[in-house]
Amino acid sequence: MEKITVVGSGYVGLVSGTCFSEIGNRVICCDVDPFKIAMLRKGEIPIYEPGLKELVKKNVDADRLFFTSEIGDAIEASDIIYIAVGTPMGDNGEADMRYVHEVARTIGQHLNSYKIIVNKSTVPVGTGEQVRQIIMENRKNRFVQFDVVSNPEFLREGSAIEDCMNMERAVIGATSDKAAKRIADLHAPFRTRIFQTNLESAEMIKYAANAFLATKISFINGIANVCERVGADVTSVAAGMGLDSRIGAKFLQAGIGYGGSCFPKDTFALSYIAEEAGFDFSLLKSVIAANDEQRLVVVDKLKQALGCLEGKKIGVLGLAFKPNTDDMRYAPSLTIIPELVRLGASVRAYDPIAMQAARNQIAEYYEDFETLEEALEGCDACLILTEWSEIVEMDLARVKQLLTAPIIVDGRNCFSVREMKEREFVYYSVGRPAVTTGSANASAAKTVSL
């Protein structure tokens, strides 16, 4: 059993700490926010992640998982210190390292015995050395030794518990073989593949992996836009591409682009790192630009279906950047909904989980509703931005009754083109043939608006 302190009880820290406790370690999750700690002590989880609340309770009850805002005490009481604080994106794309540096100073001030300092946060190359220097400058006893490790996270929101408990690989970059072995042993119960390298390479692996996945998404969205113009179906194209083992089928789902806490921030940060190193990473810049442009393709499709959007009522389904999370960071809805309002439309919105998080950012642009049906009632069109299971499985016959005309613009390709044609919807998706031969009501609505 290891004694672990995780500094930062946000998404990465809370999930990682909980999973480390689940495999038998004593874990203290700490945070500077006393309100967050108070919530966690009461069994309230500040983020939405399937299965997390139950796992937290299980390990708190087993006296393996603890929460505190006394960060110094938690550091002194543990042998392995994980840094899992945010590295938000600055205006120029650079990762803001103030929180990581602050934690490093605190560790130095409370370094009472040999400890392994592990960076879990996504950080620029060279951060491990920075952390080492800051701890050395702040430690009170220069004879107390420590090692620094980079152990980046690869969690997907909505499936983070599964990703951690059954992780594909653990990347470990360390300043000593002793520290690397100990962190490798910590991961042994996860039965994962261990990849050991130096600090700098481990730090770069996280950025490179996320940037590559973002590139796949922007690429398939570009292919989707070409498919629409030449009569191909991107779903079939992606399936055929995915059969090639060199490419694989993952991250080839066309739609309205990526969002969330990782891909937008990490692509910008890597572009900045490259620029600072003297390399113009034009490919990555194009990936970012393509993703920004892709969000608005559904607005163009609404214009095709309705003509002018002035005075139109649009029912928006899904606000979070992906299903099974309430994360609104860089969600496409944050760009799309204000654009609809700018064009004169009014928006009625529904999301099964992310309503409150969305209100905190764009409440002035839309009216929200407690149910999918309430949001769609009396709307001129339905716009799908997140592929929640509730939305994918919604009763299309009922949807048709609720809308003034059976028009759906689907930014996530939730339904088959054949089914929508059979049901006589006017249906626009991404990278697939549009269905424009809907019922007479839809045709009439479109004619009037034109």
Provide a brief overview of the structure.
This protein is an alpha/beta fold and about 450 residues long. It is about 45% helix and about 15% strand. It has helices at about 10-20, 35-40, 50-60, 70-75, 100-110, 125-140, 160-165, 175-185, 200-230, 235-240, 265-275, 280-295, 295-305, 335-340, 355-360, 370-375, 390, 395-400, 415-420, 440-450; strands spanning about 5, 25-30, 65-70, 80-85, 115-120, 145-150, 170-175, 195, 315, 345-350, 365-370, 380-385, 405-410, 425-430.
For the structure shown, list the relevant keywords.
450 residues; alpha/beta; Rossmann fold; N-(1-d-carboxylethyl)-l-norvaline Dehydrogenase, domain 2; 6-stranded parallel beta sheet; elongated; disordered C terminus
Number of strands: 14
- Under CATH, the topology of the largest domain can be stated as Rossmann fold
Distance between the termini: 69 Å
Q: Tell me the CATH architecture of the largest domain.
A: 3-Layer(aba) Sandwich
CATH homologous superfamily classification of the largest domain: NAD(P)-binding Rossmann-like Domain
CATH class of the largest domain: Alpha Beta
What integer value in Å does the Rg equal? 24 Å
Mean pLDDT, all residues:
95
Topology:
Blueprint: E1 3-7, H1 11-22, E2 26-30, H2 34-41, H3 52-61, E3 65-68, H4 71-76, E4 80-83, H5 98-109, E5 115-119, H6 127-138, E6 146-150, H7 160-165, E7 169-174, H8 177-186, E8 193-197, H9 199-230, H10 234-242, H11 263-276, H12 282-294, H13 297-306, E9 313-317, H14 333-342, E10 346-350, H15 355-362, E11 367-368, H16 372-376, E12 381-384, H17 389-392, H18 396-402, E13 407-410, H19 417-422, E14 426-428, H20 440-449
